[in-house]
C-alpha cells in the first residue's frame, strides 16, 4: 500500500518532491539534532489524491494520519484533545518550491473549551492560553471556513481602543477570555455552525483546508509568475506547538543567515517578544532587529547563531529560518533556501565561491537571469535627488527605485498597469491577497511591518523595490499623509527608494545602475566556463563604454544608420536619401563622411585588438523621411526644390511593406556611392587610429543579403574603395567582409555564400519576421490570440523559434562549416540575450552572440549556463 504520511525521523532533505520543502527540511533539522518540535508530514501525493477524490480525505488516508498522530502522542507524552496533557499542533502547508504566504497555516489546533480551561490551570497562564484560543478560532474561520478574518481583527482593534490598550501584550487573561467568547459568537454568526469542539475533526478539516489552499487564487497566480507546475501539490506539516506568546521570556522570529537584500555575510532578521509566528510576517507589529536579542536573551542568541551557521554549512546556501522561543528555550520551526534580491543572489554566490563552499559552476547555476537583471536595477539620478523633497522614511526592504501614481488597492495597480500607468501600491501592510497587484506595481510602500514582513519578503522575491514600516506616514480615508502632514490622494505621483528607505514627492528621473565588484566577479567566472563569445551591439561611444564595463569582447553590430539621428546629421542624411541626382547625393555623402569617420575612430579606440562588426546602411527609409511641414520646407530649400515637389518625392519613396522593401544591400545595389562613402569612412578611421597605436580589427557586414551574386557585386565595390584608401594612406589594415543572414533564402544557400564570405552574423529579428511572415511592428496585435489558443507558447521575436527559424540557423551553420570549418558565426538579434535561445546557439556551435550594452551581463551568464547545460546533456 502506498505510503502517504511520514514522521520527521523518516525524511531527508532530498525528499522535497514528496515531503515538500518545509517537510524535507524539518526532517533534516531533526536528523541534525537541532531543537525541532516533533511531528509528521502528509505528502504531496496525498494532496494530488485529495483532488483526484473530489476534494475529500479518504478513509484510508485518515487512518494513516491517526496512526502517525498516535505515534506523535507517544513520543511527546501528550494527547490531542486531552484535558490533562493536551497536545496542540500547527498545520502548515509546504510545497516543494517555496511559496511564502501563498497557502494557509493554522496554529494552536487542539484547543476547545475544556482543553483551554484545563490548560490555563495547568500553565497558570490564562492570558497565553486564551490568546492562543482566539487565534485558532480566527484562523479556522479564515482558512477552513473561508470567511474574512478582518471582522475579527476589527473587533480586536475596537476592543483595544475602548480599553485604552496600545499593544496586544497589554491585554490580560480576562481580556483574552472575553475576546475568545466573542470570537466564538462571531464564528457561529459567520458560518452558521459552532466552532468544532472535536479536536480530531479540527485536524482533518484543517488538513483538507491546507490541501484546498493549493488552488486558492493567490497560490495559482504565484505559480504562474514563478513557473511552478500546477500538479506538484503541497505537503501538510503537523507539528507540536511551541509558544512564543507564553510570556515575556518567549518570542518568535524570522532570520536569514545572510542579508536577503544585499547578501552581506551577517545574520539578518527580526523577532517579537510575546508573540506567535504569524505576527512577524503579518506586519501587525513592527519587530526588533535580531541583533538586540543578544542583550535580552544572550544564551538563546548564542545558540541561535550556532544553529544558523550549522544550517548554512549543511545546505551551502543562505537560509531563511523561523524560530520560536518558549520560556527561554529555542526551537527551530523551519529552514529553507532564502528568497533574495538579484543583488544578494550575485553577492552570495560569489562569496560562497570565495569561501570554498561551492564551485564556480554551482554559482552560475544558482544565479538566475532575472537575478542579474535585478542586480542592475534602476536608481534615481543623483542630480535629480539634490532637489527632491523627502516626505517619509521607512525601512529599505527591497532595493531599487520606482515612481508612479499612488494606489491603495491591489486591484487598482492591476487596472492601471494594463492601461500603461505606473503605480506605487501603498498599504498599511500587504497580505497574500495582494500578490497580483504587487506584481503589477512598480514599487510597494507600507506603513507597518518590518524587514521580514510579507511586503518585504515578496517584493524581494519579485525584484520589486519596497519601503516598509514607514511609520512617519499614515493612510486615512484613501489618502496618504506625509511626515509633514501634507495630504496626497490616489493618482498623485510619488517616488520610493528601496535602497535608502526614502519616499519622495513627485517623479524623480531614473537611470540604470552600473556594474559592481560582485557582478564583475561572476562575469569573470562566466568567461572561464562559456563557449560563446559575447560582443556588444553599440553605435556610440557611450554605448561601448557601458558594454566595456561589463566585459564585452568587441562589437558584434554597429548599426551605421543609427549614427545619423542627431539633428544636423539627419538633415544631411535626408538630403542624401531625397537627392534627385547622383551629384547631389554625392555632395550629401561627402558631408556625412567626417561624421562616420569620427564615430568609427571612437569605437576602434575602445576596442583595440577586438573585432568591430560594422553593418552598412540598413534604414527602412520611411523612418528617416521628414514628416513635419517645417522640416520639408527647410529640406526643400537645401535641395533647391519646392516643398510640393519634395512631398511628391517623399510620397514616391513610401512603401507598402517597408520592412521588405528598398533597404539593406538593396540600397547599395541601387546607389553604390553609399557603400563607397561608408567604406572610405571605415578604412580611413582604422588607418587614423592605427597611427595612434590602436589595433583595429575591422569586420564589414553587408545587410539583408539574399544571393551570392548580390554579395559579390557589393564586395567588389567595397574592396576597390579599400584598395584606393589604403594606397592613398600608404598603410595596411586587416579586414574581413561578411554577410548578415536575415533572409531565409540566404540561410538555405549558406554554402554558396560561405565560399565568398569571411563570416556570417544571423540577424534573427528579420529572419524571424521573414520566416513567419509576421510584421514585427504589428504582430503583437494578434499574437496574444495565438498564446491563448496554445498555437504559440511565447513571442518568437523574444525567444527563438527553434523548430522553424532555428532550423534555418542550424542548416546555415552546417552548410557554411562544410565549406569553411573555422568560419566565424554570430547572432546579433534580440535573441542574443534570451536564455533558451542562447542554449540553442551554444548547442549548434555558433562563435559568438552580440547583445545591447546593458544586456551583456545577461548574455554572459546565459552563455555560461548554456555551456553547463549542453555539457550535461
Number of helices: 35
- Estimated share of beta-strand residues: 15-25%
Unreliable spans: none
Task: Give me the side-by-side strand order of the main sheet.
Answer: 12-22-21-14-15-16-17-13
Tell me which CATH architecture of the domain at 530-619 and 663-872 applies here: Alpha-Beta Barrel
CATH class wording of the domain at 530-619 and 663-872: Alpha Beta
- CATH homologous superfamily designation of the domain at 530-619 and 663-872: Phosphoenolpyruvate-binding domains
Question: If you compute it from the alpha carbons, what radius of gyration comes out, rounded to the nearest whole angstrom?
Answer: 33 Å
Q: Structural class of the secondary structure composition?
A: alpha/beta
Overall helicity: 40-55%
What oligomeric state do these chains adopt? single chain
**End-to-end CA span:** 36 Å
What do the pLDDT scores average to? 93
> Based on CA inertia axes, which overall geometry fits?
elongated
Main sheet?
8 strands, mixed
Amino acid at each position: 500500500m502506498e505510503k502517504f504520511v511520514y514522521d520527521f525521523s523518516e525524511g531527508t532533505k532530498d525528499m522535497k518532491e514528496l515531503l515538500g520543502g518545509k517537510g524535507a527540511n524539518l526532517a533534516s533539522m531533526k536528523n541534525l539534532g537541532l531543537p525541532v518540535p516533533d511531528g509528521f508530514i502528509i505528502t504531496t501525493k496525498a494532496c494530488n489524491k485529495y483532488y483526484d477524490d473530489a476534494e475529500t480525505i479518504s478513509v484510508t488516508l485518515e487512518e494513516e494520519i491517526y496512526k502517525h498522530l498516535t505515534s506523535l502522542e507517544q513520543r511527546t507524552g501528550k494527547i490531542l484533545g486531552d484535558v490533562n496533557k493536551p497536545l496542540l499542533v500547527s498545520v502548515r502547508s509546504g510545497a516543494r518550491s517555496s511559496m511564502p504566504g501563498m497557502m494557509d497555516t493554522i496554529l494552536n489546533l487542539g484547543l476547545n473549551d475544556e482543553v483551554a480551561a484545563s490548560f490555563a490551570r495547568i500553565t497558570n497562564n490564562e492570558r497565553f492560553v486564551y490568546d492562543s484560543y482566539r487565534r485558532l478560532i480566527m484562523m479556522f474561520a479564515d482558512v477552513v471556513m473561508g470567511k474574512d478574518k478582518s471582522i475579527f481583527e476589527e473587533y480586536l482593534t475596537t476592543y483595544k481602543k475602548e480599553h485604552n490598550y496600545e499593544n496586544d501584550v497589554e491585554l490580560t487573561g480576562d481580556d483574552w477570555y472575553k475576546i475568545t467568547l466573542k470570537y466564538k459568537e462571531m464564528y457561529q454568526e459567520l458560518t452558521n455552525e459552532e466552532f468544532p469542539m472535536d479536536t480530531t475533526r479540527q485536524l482533518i478539516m484543517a488538513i483538507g483546508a491546507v490541501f484546498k489552499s493549493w488552488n486558492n487564487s493567490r497560490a495559482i497566480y504565484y505559480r504562474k509568475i514563478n513557473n511552478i507546475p500546477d500538479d506538484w501539490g503541497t505537503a501538510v506539516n503537523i507539528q507540536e506547538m511551541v509558544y512564543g506568546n507564553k510570556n515575556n521570556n518567549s518570542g518568535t522570529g524570522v532570520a536569514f543567515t545572510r542579508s536577503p537584500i544585499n547578501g552581506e555575510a551577517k545574520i539578518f532578521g527580526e523577532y517579537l517578544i510575546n508573540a506567535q509566528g504569524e505576527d512577524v510576517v503579518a506586519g501587525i507589529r513592527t519587530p526588533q532587529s535580531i541583533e538586540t536579542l543578544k542583550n535580552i536573551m544572550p544564551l538563546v542568541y548564542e545558540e541561535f547563531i550556532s544553529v544558523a551557521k550549522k544550517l548554512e554549512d549543511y545546505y551551502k546556501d543562505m537560509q531563511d529560518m523561523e524560530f520560536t522561543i518558549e520560556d527561554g528555550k529555542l526551537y527551530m520551526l523551519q529552514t529553507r533556501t532564502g528568497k533574495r534580491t538579484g543583488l544578494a543572489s550575485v553577492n552570495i554566490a560569489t562569496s560562497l565561491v570565495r569561501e570554498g563552499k561551492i564551485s564556480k559552476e554551482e554559482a552560475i547555476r544558482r544565479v538566475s537571469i532575472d537575478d542579474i537583471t535585478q542586480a542592475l536595477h534602476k536608481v534615481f539620478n543623483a542630480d535629480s535627488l539634490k532637489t527632491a523633497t523627502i516626505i517619509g522614511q521607512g525601512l529599505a526592504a527591497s532595493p531599487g527605485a520606482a515612481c508612479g501614481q499612488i494606489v491603495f488597492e491591489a486591484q487598482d495597480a492591476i487596472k492601471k498597469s494594463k492601461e500603461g500607468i505606473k503605480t506605487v501600491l501603498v498599504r498599511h501592510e500587504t497580505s497574500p491577497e495582494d500578490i497580483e497587484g504587487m506584481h503589477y506595481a512598480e514599487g510597494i510602500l507600507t506603513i507597518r511591518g518590518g524587514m521580514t514582513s510579507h511586503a518585504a519578503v515578496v517584493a524581494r522575491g519579485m525584484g520589486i523595490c519596497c519601503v516598509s514600516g514607514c511609520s512617519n506616514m499614515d493612510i486615512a480615508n484613501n489618502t496618504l499623509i506625509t511626515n509633514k502632514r501634507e495630504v496626497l490622494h490616489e493618482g498623485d505621483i510619488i517616488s520610493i527608494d528601496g535602497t535608502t528607505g526614502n519616499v519622495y514627492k513627485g517623479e524623480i528621473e531614473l537611470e540604470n545602475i552600473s556594474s559592481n565588484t560582485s557582478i564583475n566577479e561572476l562575469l569573470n567566472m562566466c568567461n572561464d566556463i562559456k563557449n560563446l563569445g559575447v560582443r556588444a551591439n553599440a553605435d556610440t561611444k557611450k554605448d561601448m563604454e557601458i558594454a566595456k564595463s561589463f566585459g564585452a569582447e568587441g562589437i558584434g553590430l554597429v548599426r551605421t544608420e543609427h549614427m545619423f539621428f542627431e539633428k544636423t546629421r539627419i538633415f544631411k542624411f535626408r538630403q542624401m536619401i531625397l537627392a534627385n541626382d547622383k551629384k547631389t547625393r554625392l555632395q550629401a555623402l561627402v558631408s556625412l563622411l567626417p561624421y562616420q569617420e569620427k564615430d568609427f575612430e571612437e569605437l576602434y579606440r575602445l576596442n583595440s585588438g577586438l573585432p568591430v562588426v560594422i553593418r552598412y546602411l540598413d534604414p527602412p527609409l520611411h523612418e528617416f523621411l521628414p514628416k513635419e511641414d517645417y522640416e520639408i520646407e527647410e529640406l526643400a530649400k537645401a535641395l533647391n526644390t519646392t516643398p510640393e515637389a519634395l512631398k511628391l518625392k517623399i510620397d514616391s519613396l513610401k512603401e507598402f511593406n517597408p520592412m521588405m522593401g528598398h533597404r539593406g544591400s538593396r540600397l547599395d545595389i541601387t546607389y553604390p556611392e553609399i557603400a563607397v562613402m561608408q567604406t572610405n569612412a571605415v578604412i580611413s578611421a582604422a588607418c587614423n587610429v592605427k597611427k595612434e597605436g590602436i589595433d583595429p580589427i575591422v569586420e564589414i557586414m553587408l545587410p539583408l543579403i539574399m544571393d551570392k551574386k548580390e554579395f559579390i557585386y557589393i564586395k567588389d565595390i567595397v574592396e576597390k574603395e579599400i584598395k584606393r584608401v589604403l594606397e592613398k594612406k600608404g598603410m595596411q589594415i586587416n579586414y574581413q567582409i561578411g554577410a548578415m543572414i536575415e533572409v531565409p533564402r540566404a540561410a538555405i544557400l549558406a554554402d554558396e555564400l560561405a565560399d565568398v564570405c569571411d563570416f556570417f552574423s544571423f540577424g534573427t529579428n528579420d529572419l524571424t519576421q521573414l520566416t513567419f511572415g509576421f510584421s514585427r511592428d504589428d504582430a503583437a496585435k494578434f499574437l496574444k490570440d495565438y498564446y491563448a489558443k496554445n498555437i504559440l507558447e511565447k513571442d518568437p521575436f523574444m525567444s527563438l523559434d527553434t523548430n522553424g527559424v532555428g532550423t534555418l540557423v542550424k542548416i546555415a551553420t552546417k552548410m557554411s562549416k562544410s565549406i569553411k570549418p573555422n568560419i566565424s558565426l554570430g547572432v546579433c538579434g534580440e535573441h542574443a540575450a534570451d536564455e533558451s535561445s542562447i542554449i540553442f546557439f551554444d548547442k549548434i556551435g555558433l562563435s559568438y552572440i552580440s547583445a545591447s550594452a546593458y544586456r551583456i551581463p545577461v548574455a554572459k551568464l546565459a552563455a555560461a549556463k548554456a555551456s553547463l547545460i549542453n555539457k550535461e546533456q
